[in-house]
Specification:
Blueprint (H helix, E strand, L loop, with lengths): L2 E2 L6 H11 L1 H7 L1 E5 L1 H7 L5 E6 L1 H6 L9 E4 L2 H8 L7 E6 L13 E5 L5 H13 L4 E4 L9 H7 L8 E3 L3 H10 L3 E5 L4 E3 L11 E5 L8 H5 L3 E4 L11 H11 L6
Helix pairs in contact: 1-2, 1-5, 6-7, 6-10
Length: about 260
């Protein structure tokens, strides 16, 4: 049976709100926050669920919530509104353990999507979702990226952050150098000295890493220099460019791993 929390000032509610708001606190605690019944149920398939909060109405609509592991708390609408930060919340909130993975865990032969300073959390989450959809083995985020485990990125990933390793690295050029030492072929999404995407084809027996840059500035020269090749997506002259998430989806499909 779930316990009840009725006060917006309950320490557990304040703790969950802090996880929602602070990337540094999430990293320190090894936890992250998510909102929504479908999202929380999806995340629970790949991440350890520590706490779940829900309203009576949400539980009636989603009875599977009662089967989730971890601590369970029944909350009234005012508490749900505080957790959501907006009126008309979905009524379901979860606290999950941060998955832990590092560059040393990446092996030759894999498919990796790398992001350098992608700052919009919606783009970060969408790129993680595309990587998972197209059979990639991991995602690497450099310093300067929006937190992949922030609420907006988690929501945009549709739970994919729990299905694919997401590595928070530091300098992207150093991460690419480490991948190349393992035999991974590295592809920069950049115009400089680039080939059309259809000319960059496998097989890639050592694996392949695709690198997407910042929404406004693109990739740094250091990241470009660390790659084996630059590739551009051929487009009509009706638009100048694609945004990071759209370009990343095209590249992820082109370099896709094993998909059904």
């Amino acid at each position: 049976m779930p316990q009840q929390i009725t006060s917006r000032d309950n320490p557990k509610i304040k703790y969950a709100c802090k996880l929602q708001q602070s990337a540094a606190f999430r990293e320190k605690e090894g936890l992250f926050f998510a909102e929504g019944p479908k999202l929380c149920l999806e995340l629970a398939k790949g991440c350890h669920n520590k706490v779940i909060y829900y309203t009576d109405a949400a539980l009636a609509a989603w009875p599977a919530l009662a089967e989730m592991e971890g601590e369970q708390y029944l909350i009234p609408l005012p508490v749900a509104e505080k957790l959501a930060g907006v009126p008309s919340p979905q009524g379901v909130f979860g606290v999950f353990a941060l998955p832990r993975a590092g560059l040393d865990d990446l092996a030759a032969g894999g498919h990796y999507l790398c992001m350098e300073a992608v700052q919009d959390p919606g783009n970060v989450g969408t790129l993680i979702r595309s990587a998972a959809a197209f059979g990639f083995d991991a995602v690497v985020c450099s310093a300067g990226c929006a937190s992949p485990f922030g609420p907006k990125a988690v929501r945009a990933s549709m739970g994919a952050v729990g299905r694919i390793p997401v590595i928070q690295a530091g300098d992207m050029s150093a991460a690419l150098a480490q991948l190349r030492r393992k035999g991974v072929y590295t592809v920069a999404a950049a115009l400089q000295r680039s080939r059309p995407l259809f000319q960059v084809t496998g097989p890639f027996p050592g694996g392949v890493a695709v690198v997407i840059g910042n929404e406004g500035q693109g990739l740094t020269e250091a990241a470009i220099d660390a790659c084996d090749v630059c590739a551009r997506i051929p487009m009509s002259d009706k638009v100048e460019s694609l945004n990071a998430a759209a370009a990343g989806a095209v590249l992820a499909w082109h370099f896709r791993g094993k998909v059904d």
